[in-house]
Specification:
alpha/beta, Rossmann fold, 5-stranded parallel beta sheet, globular, binds thymidine-5'-phosphate
Amino acid sequence: MKKGLFIVLEGPDGAGKSTVSEMIAQYLQQKGHEIEFTREPGGTPIGEKIRGIVLDNENTEMAGTTEALLYAASRAQHVSEKIRPILMSGKTLICERFYHSSLVYQGIGRKLGVEKVRSINEFAIEGTYPDLVLFLDIDPAEALSRKKSLDGGDRLEQEHVSFHMDVYNGYKEIIKISPEIKVINASKSKEEVFNSVIEQLERIL
Ligand code: TMP
């Protein structure tokens, strides 16, 4: 039985997941929580090796099913080696991306089907569900330009923009069938984002 809080951040690249992680950490530390951070894919030495395989550009022949199983395998190791022990120790864990990323990227992006991808992930996580999933809602083009200004000007080609748009639309589909996901309007000011995040946090404290 887990004791600590498990908080997951989802959203397009550049939505501000790391900034929101820090906001949550500061708020909860003031309330006496001990905080740990993690992210997917990876999070453990075995998970990092799987990440290397799944993201290797040379693996062009990788089947969508293999990809989904590799993400799920990395997640299974993450849950067993890191997530569950941290939660059992009573600490609060903030994780950037978790199984909803697989539902979106593999279930919708790779067209494997959301329910099939959900079932392999249920096997992988063995009942370790987040207490709170926040989707940072921001127009992907805005998120990319924000990221560019932070990174000092990474140039992204048109296919990258359309890829990010597909992912964003995938998230919107998943949100419709996932009442556990709470949407945060991440295009607002930092203060407004903070207030919305705290409102959601307070519901689970
Ligand atoms: P990252 O850039 O956030 O580190 O993630 C690496 C890529 O992996 C990113 O394109 C999102 C993708 N991804 C999936 O396709 N499925 C998953 O389950 C996760 C966690 C990430």
